[in-house]
Design goal:
With about 575 residues, this protein is α/β, with parallel strands linked by helices. The longest helix has 17 residues. The chain has 18 helices and 28 strands. Strands 2-1-11-10-12-13-14-15-16 form a 9-stranded mixed β-sheet. The radius of gyration is 24 Å and the shape is globular. The protein has 2 domains: about 400 residues, ANL, N-terminal domain (Rossmann fold), CATH 3.40.50.12780; about 100 residues, GMP Synthetase, Chain A, domain 3 (2-Layer Sandwich), CATH 3.30.300. α4 packs across α5 and α9 packs across α10. The structure holds adenosine-5'-triphosphate and magnesium ion (MG). The site of adenosine-5'-triphosphate has 26 residues, from β14, β22 and β23.
């Protein structure tokens, strides 16, 4: 029987962790003090890209490797901070030469690769607002977001442009400039109505006077994952740099000589805050993998690149678990010091799998597009309670609250389920939902930002995810969080994935129904169905356990790997499916 807690010992800390939690350490923390880790622009103000690269390029870190790019064909290329600074200056110059001014929206439809970094950093230096998109998006979600975000510039590969954007051009009058490169990196063949990125870069100056942005200047437009409805555009500012810096240090435990790998897609906020900014702000070397997921190759990357800190997501961990422990054990990662995960609840099974198979437990953390950075985390020095999201980071004050009909709030006690709230402000708090002012206002009550997620806090101050408020099931007077039921089902050896929804029921209010996909080699059968229902009843009790269970070959997920329970529900009830633009493998 596994214990409820994973204690840490000195052997877990080959280097001294950056954060040791204690009331005194928390009291001593201040954002103002941490801000000495940023330099500010020489003339005053703050620019995210200047902080991320130029500051290092101007100092002793100039020749330190910023990016180690693993190309699809097996090649690798290293870019140091000095080169990244000059190249992003060239990109900024290209924009300026095209007449693109500060505040203009630049969209990046890029896979992982050098161009993503140049586009992001160069645009920010020119004072533009950047919106990254999933390169796997089809034409419709691309059009919707470009239109909503009034994108004036698009950076993408020639092949993505031809396949997904060219036919849309006439419907996007705001889109003035399209910059193209070859998908394998380097120059593309010319395409009518577009510019060739590398030709313009070659002609551009590599010195650039960074736009005089301030901590409050808009920098990023991130669309949410669309798990619970149509994606919302969340606007972030340059001042978010401080959250990226601080959370990279305390939540991910990044140290100056680390090799760091963030495997999130750049179209998702994690791919930006922690795929681009946090590691650069802290001056570490990032592995940038241009390929798609492949269990064998991922283990090779961890092993051969000698990754110290790895930030991933439950969906990737699930795929690795599926690929089997033997494959993992044929590789060795003595350098791997810290593994973290975000995006979805991390089942206790997955935390233990990390410890038992990879040799390190997986540290769950929680945040949202809206928060701009990690807010709750299991940190390096902390004991882990598998299934918990951890504790608020320094500088973050969290609470479990109940919102009343009259608009007031009450703070709930330990053990009670309520909405997870965070005391505002913090540097990376979003500043607007694009075009939805009222919705933005509704997120705040007095001093608190309300996340829309339900959770509880235990007596030791650990937070436990219960569910998104839209997904929580009310059955016979009980409030049931789908995560708890799904985790119990996933303990059964036949189950690969589980999703649980509530279905309207005259007697119960809502009835719990589970959808399960099975591990490869296991066949669905009425016996197995009964066995799984029995297993859940034994684990959870009859009031919480599912009453019905159906098998599916796979479960609907967003491109960032989140379960779309609303889609299962719509399909079950024969209702319209709503916005499916972020659905992975649309059927
Ligand atoms: P939308 O708001 O469009 O429905 P989304 O909320 O999935 O999409 P994101 O901002 O990418 O978009 O995801 C944040 C959400 O992901 C959180 O509000 C939470 O529900 C979930 N989440 C993130 N990390 C965790 C975690 N560690 N445990 C549980 N849930 C998590
Ligand atoms: Mg959300």
């Amino acid at each position: 029987m596994r214990s409820q807690i994973i204690e840490k010992s000195p052997s877990d800390w080959p280097v001294e962790p950056n954060w040791w939690d204690s009331p005194a350490a928390r009291a001593a923390f201040s954002w103002r003090t941490e801000a000495v880790g940023l330099s500010g622009l020489p003339e005053g103000g703050l620019n995210l890209a200047f902080e991320a690269v130029d500051r290092h390029a101007l100092g002793a870190h100039r020749r330190h490797v910023a990016l180690r790019i693993l190309q699809r064909d097996g090649g690798r290329r290293e870019i140091d901070y000095g080169q990244l600074s000059s190249l992003s200056n060239r990109f900024a110059t290209v924009l300026k030469n095209l007449g693109v001014g500060p505040g203009t929206r630049v969209f990046l439809l890029c896979g992982r690769g050098l161009e993503l970094y140049l586009g992001m950093l160069g645009s920010l230096k020119n004072g533009c607002v950047v919106s990254p998109l999933f390169s796997a998006f089809g034409p419709e979600p691309i059009e919707t977001r470009l239109r909503l975000g009034e994108g004036a510039v698009l950076l993408t590969s020639e092949s993505l442009y031809r396949r997904k954007v060219a036919a849309l051009r006439e419907r996007l009058p705001a889109l003035q400039h399209v910059l193209l490169y070859d998908e394998n990196g380097g120059p593309n063949t010319p395409v009518e109505g577009t510019h060739s990125l590398y030709q313009l870069l070659a002609e551009a100056s590599e010195t650039f006077a960074v736009a005089p942005t301030t901590p409050d200047s808009p920098a990023l437009l991130h669309f949410t994952s669309g798990t619970t409805g149509a994606p919302k555009g969340a606007l972030h500012v340059h001042g978010a740099a401080l959250t990226h810096l601080v959370t990279g240090k305390y939540a991910l435990d990044l140290h100056p000589d680390d090799i760091y790998w963030c495997s999130a897609d750049p179209g998702w906020v994690t791919g930006t805050s922690y795929g681009i900014f946090a590691p650069l702000l802290l001056g570490v070397t990032s592995v940038v993998d241009c390929g798609e997921f492949d269990a064998e190759r991922w283990y090779q990357i961890l092993e051969q690149e000698r990754v110290n800190v790895w930030y991933t997501a439950p969906t990737a961990i699930r795929l690795l678990i599926k690929a089997g422990a033997e494959l993992a054990r044929s590789h060795h990662f003595p350098q791997l010091r810290f593994i973290a995960s975000v995006g979805e609840p991390l089942n206790p099974e997955a935390v233990w799998w990390g410890k038992e198979v990879l040799g390190k437990p997986i540290h769950d953390n929680w945040w949202q597009t809206e928060t701009g950075g990690i807010m709750l985390a299991n940190t390096a020095a902390m004991a882990i309670k598998p299934g918990s999201m951890g504790k608020p980071l320094p500088g973050v004050e969290a609470a479990i609250v109940e919102r009343h009909a009259d608009g007031s709030l009450s703070l709930l006690d330990d053990g009670q389920v309520g909405e997870l709230a965070l005391k505002q402000p913090w540097p990376s708090l979003f500043r607007a939902y694009l075009g939805q002012e009222e919705r933005y206002r509704r997120c705040f009550v007095g001093a608190w930002y309300l996340s829309g997620d339900l959770a509880r806090r235990d007596a030791d101050g650990y937070y436990w995810f219960v569910g998104r408020s839209d997904d929580v099931i009310k059955s016979a007077g009980h409030l049931i969080g789908p995560f708890e039921v799904e985790s119990a089902l996933m303990e059964h050896p036949a189950v690969a994935e589980a999703a649980v929804i509530g279905i309207p029921d005259a007697l119960l209010g809502e009835m719990v129904k589970a959808f399960v996909s099975l591990k490869s080699g296991v066949e669905p059968s009425p016996q197995l169905q009964a066995e799984l229902l029995g297993h859940a009843r034994k684990r959870l009790g009859a009031a919480v356990a599912p009453k019905e269970l159906a098998f599916l070959p796979s479960l609907p997920r967003t491109r960032s790997g989140k379960l779309m329970r609303r889609l299962l529900k719509a399909r079950e009830l024969g209702l319209p499916e709503g916005d499916t633009s972020t659905l992975e493998n649309p059927l």
